[in-house]
Specification:
The chain is mainly β. The protein has a single domain, classed as Deoxyuridine 5'-Triphosphate Nucleotidohydrolase, Chain A (Distorted Sandwich). The chain has three helices and eleven strands; from the N terminus they run H-E-E-E-E-E-E-E-H-E-E-E-E-H. It has a four-stranded antiparallel β-sheet with strand order 1-6-9-8. Strands 2-11-7 form a three-stranded antiparallel β-sheet. Strands 3-4 form a two-stranded antiparallel sheet. The longest helix is centred in the first third of the chain and has 10 residues, at about 5-15. The chain starts with a helix and ends in a 5-residue tail after the last helix. Its EC number is 3.5.4.13. One of its GO terms (molecular function) is dCTP deaminase activity. InterPro entries: dCTP_deaminase (IPR011962), dUTPase-like_sf (IPR036157), dUTPase_trimeric (IPR033704). It is an enzyme of class 3 (hydrolase).
C-alpha cells in the first residue's frame, strides 16, 4: 500500500516519517516533492573503479543555475532530510523534470527503512539542461512494509550533501578488494 498525501502529512506530524524541512505545499496526492540542494559532485577519472574510492570534484550551483551536460553523471542531493523507521521510501524524478530530458535516480530509487538523511540524486541529462538550487526535482513515496523490520545502519546513514559510491567499502568488508 502506498501512503496518500494526507497520510504523509499526518505521519510527518506524528513522527512516523521525518522530513526536514517539511513544507505542506510540497505534499502531492501520494508523494512528497523534494528539492535540489546546492552542491553537485562529478567523478574526475575517465574510468571508474568499483574496487576503490574514485576522486570527485565539487560544484556549487549558483543563483544563475548550472548547466548539466549530456554524457556526464552528476551526483546531487536533496535539501530535505527524509527517512522513516516505519515505511519504505522510494524516490523518483518528477514528470516535469523527465520531460526536460533529465534522468533522476536511474537505478536506485528504493530507500531502506531506518535511513535518515539527505538523498543523493544520480542526475543524467540527455541534452544540456540548466538546473537551480531549490528546484523541485523529485518526489518520494512511502509504502507500508510487511514483516519484521531491521533498521538500516549502513555507510550512507545521516548523509549530508551528495555521496559518491562507497561500493568498494562493501568489498573491503568482505575482503574482496584487489590490491
Amino acid at each position: 500500500m502506498i501512503l496518500t498525501g494526507p497520510e504523509i502529512a499526518q505521519a510527518t506530524a506524528d513522527g512516523r516519517i521525518r522530513i526536514s524541512p517539511f513544507e505542506p505545499t510540497q505534499v502531492n496526492p501520494n508523494s512528497y516533492n523534494v528539492r535540489l540542494g546546492g552542491t553537485l559532485l562529478t567523478y574526475t577519472a575517465h574510468t571508474l573503479d568499483a574496487h576503490r574510492p574514485n576522486a570527485t570534484e565539487s560544484i556549487e550551483i549558483g543563483p544563475d543555475g548550472f548547466e548539466l551536460q549530456p554524457g556526464q553523471l552528476y551526483l546531487g542531493h536533496t535539501i530535505e532530510e527524509v527517512g522513516s523507521d516505519t515505511f519504505v521510501p522510494l524516490l523518483f524524478g518528477r514528470s516535469s523534470i523527465g520531460r526536460l530530458g533529465l534522468f533522476v535516480e536511474i537505478t536506485a530509487p528504493i530507500g531502506d527503512i531506518g535511513f535518515h538523511g539527505q538523498w543523493t540524486l544520480m542526475l543524467s541529462p540527455i541534452r544540456p539542461l540548466r538546473v537551480y538550487p531549490g528546484m523541485r526535482i523529485g518526489q518520494i513515496m512511502f509504502f507500508v512494509s510487511v514483516g519484521p523490520v531491521a533498521l538500516y545502519a549502513g555507510k550512507y546513514q545521516s548523509s549530508a550533501g551528495p555521496q559518491p559510491s562507497a561500493y568498494w567499502h562493501d568489498l573491503a568488508a568482505l575482503g574482496a578488494v584487489a590490491s
